[in-house]
Amino acid sequence: MSTTKQPSALIKTEALYTALFVVGLIAPFAVYPTFLMKLFCFALFASAFNLLLGFAGLLSFGHAAFLGTAGYVCGLMVRDMGVTPEVGIIAGTAAAGLLGWLFGVLAIRRTGIYFAMITLALAQMVYFIVLQVKATGGEDGLQGVPRGHLFGLVDLSDNVAMYYLVYAVFSIGFFIIYRTIHSPFGQILKAIRENEPRAISLGYDVNKFKLMAFVISASLAGLAGATKTLVFQLTSLSDVHWHMSGEVVLMTLLGGLGTILGPAVGSATIVTLQNELADKVGSWVTVIMGLIFVVCVLAFRRGIVGEIQALIQRAGIR
């Protein structure tokens, strides 16, 4: 029975992703491009975090360090060294990956709350360094980052052109996450998440796989951060603050931990609420976000996408 339904389910999944991809192509002509670019940056950030927590079972409270570090590296290289945007994005991503490797080497042998606290402490060290180094602009942030010309040809000061770069970056990052999850490597990560002692007994070097997952997640978070810097032409301390690490946890849980589309849905929900409520309730946005988090944990533990999937399964839809 399962063999006959798997091809059908695969076709439906491919059709869904194709439809979403087409919607993304025409979206900037219906919705404000800058808002969409912010949404995609945070969607990639949340998806990268979900790869670590949802599929490897590692809760990091320091992911803002990768987002912010890549943003600062990209901004400094584009603004002060005059490199093209794509070089800045690659450099920022590489810097985040290197930082992720360093964090992973120091934290990966710990589990649970100890792992989370180590990542938080390391991220706060990054925050302190960024605050003190003059080149980063301190409390004023790194401002005046030019978008430049992609490959020296495409002027990214045009919002539509910039949107398609952001959309391409998000699509590539999302595809990498999707393929990682559905690869043998991804299956090993799930095995480690479900039963680490058994994975060890099967001969897997658990720490090596955890470290690889951490570096991939950090690199993709950095990819989002570097792209975000070009979109808004600045990077601020909020990008490396622990609040940002907490926000990505909220996005992931709200959308659906361990689901593929969940983090993107969760980030879209949070970014939309922030955008719509900022002018109406001011600082109360934070309180509203907290209430949403509480309701989600108590009533919708699977998240938005997780609950939808559960409803579909209960209805017998494949």
How would you sum up this structure in a few lines?
The protein has 318 residues and is mainly α.
Secondary structure tally, helices: 13
What order do the SSEs take from the amino end to the carboxyl end, as H and E? Answer: HHHHHEEEHHHHEHHHH
Strand content: under 5%
User: Helices and strands: which structural class?
Assistant: mainly alpha
- Give the helix proportion (percent range): over 70%
Question: How many E strands?
Answer: 4
Cα Rg: 20 Å
The geometry reads as: globular
Biggest sheet descriptor:
2 strands, antiparallel
The mean pLDDT is 87
Uncertain stretches: 1-5
- The side-by-side strand order for the widest beta sheet comes to 1-4
Distance between the termini: 12 Å
Please give a handful of descriptors for the protein shown.
318 residues, mainly alpha, 75% helix, globular
Description:
- It is built from 13 helices and four strands.
- The chain has 318 residues and is an all-alpha fold.
- The model is unreliable at 1-5 (pLDDT under 50).
- A hairpin with a 3-residue loop joins strand 2 and strand 3.
- The longest helix is centred in the C-terminal third of the chain and has 27 residues, at 206-232.
- The strands form two sheets. A two-stranded antiparallel sheet has the order 1-4.
- Helix 2 (33-56) runs parallel beside helix 6 and helix 2 packs across helix 11 (262-281).
